[in-house]
Design brief:
By secondary structure, the chain is mainly α. The protein contains 16 helices and no strands. The longest helix is centred in the last third of the chain and has 20 residues. One of its GO terms (molecular function) is nucleic acid binding.
């Protein structure tokens, strides 16, 4: 009997059962996309500059704190108020503040005055001086004819000039005032440039018309405001009307006295006009407006004593 010897089976890899692919007819086969990408130089290869692990970025928080510190310690401006009224201040560079400072300084304005001006109008902190500030100075120097040394006085007296538009506000006001009679010796000066910030239709003209409504002629009103330019800065509701009413009803005086002493409107009704009138009435005296108001408190009291002594001496005769 023939015994069969166990045979060892040799298993071929499964892949060997798959027919081999036919060689490509294209001698330059296209490289697969993924492979071509893998052949590209990486950012760390010699073909690219090395990556910086510490990018050169500015610390915006530090710059902002530096700007706030400069604003408060150097310019003496309230930074919270500036941020509230001028949000652009947050993003503007510190060079913007310095350019405004240099502009104001070039016009003779001292640093001690910067704080007051910029605190009142923080929108000035971010303006371009060449488009917003120098045109105003040019207008004052060459059209209003304010001498250069007096520009500083005009700004300190009325900082609002710096936020007014030349074409829309300042030039129309100058034209109105010139036609009204502010010419020659009565021309606009550093003491009266504040009139330029007033609206012609909304402020100046209504005050002229109100004074005319009291029975004064146009020529009389013009003469009054030329002699006392402050008349054009007073409120009709809060100044003119209560003082005219007191003049006519309590003091029993005539409107004609206003022509002789238009400065009457510049005195405090509660602080000076009423108290002095009351003292005169208590002693049975009366004085013209000029004599009653223009003197100091000491001079008024001396005059009152003299009048009382004179009345006593007269009663003895």
């Amino acid at each position: 009997m023939i015994q069969l010897q166990p045979q060892t089976l040799f298993l071929l890899p499964q892949g060997s059962l798959i027919p081999s692919p036919k060689p490509s007819k294209n001698p330059n086969p296209k490289t697969p996309k993924s492979l071509s990408n893998s052949l590209r130089p990486t950012l760390n290869s010699p073909n690219y500059p090395p990556l910086s692990h510490h990018p050169n970025t500015s610390d915006s928080g530090l710059l902002f704190r530096e700007k706030v510190l400069y604003l408060e310690t150097h310019l003496n401006v309230n930074s919270q108020k500036a941020l509230q009224l001028n949000p652009d201040f947050r993003s503007c560079p510190i060079s913007s503040l310095k350019s405004v400072e240099n502009c104001l300084s070039s016009m003779g304005i001292e640093r001690s005055a910067f704080g007051r001006i910029l605190d009142m109008y923080p929108q000035l902190l971010t303006v371009d001086p060449h488009t917003h500030l120098y045109p105003i100075f040019d207008f004052l120097l060459n059209e209003v004819l304010i001498p250069f040394p007096d520009i500083r006085k005009s700004m300190i007296r009325c900082p609002r000039l710096l936020v007014c538009d030349v074409d829309d506000q300042l030039r129309p006001a100058l034209k109105f005032l010139t036609e009204l009679g502010f010419v020659g010796r009565s021309s606009i000066t550093c003491q009266t440039t504040l009139l330029l910030v007033s609206s012609v239709e909304g402020t100046l003209l209504p005050k002229i018309q109100y004074l005319q409504s009291l029975g004064l002629s146009y020529e009389e009103v013009v003469n009054m405001v030329i002699r006392s330019p402050g008349l054009l800065t007073f409120s009709i509701k809060n100044n003119y009307k209560p003082k005219v009413e007191f003049l006519l009803k309590e003091m029993k005086k005539d409107i004609a006295e206003l022509k002789r002493f238009p400065q009457y409107f510049s005195f405090s009704l509660e602080g000076k006009i009423k108290p002095r009138h009351r003292l005169l009435v208590e002693h049975g005296f009366s004085l013209p407006l000029r004599e009653m108001l223009k003197v100091s408190d000491g001079e008024f009291n001396v005059r009152l004593i003299e009048m009382r002594l004179g009345s006593v001496e007269g009663s003895w005769l």
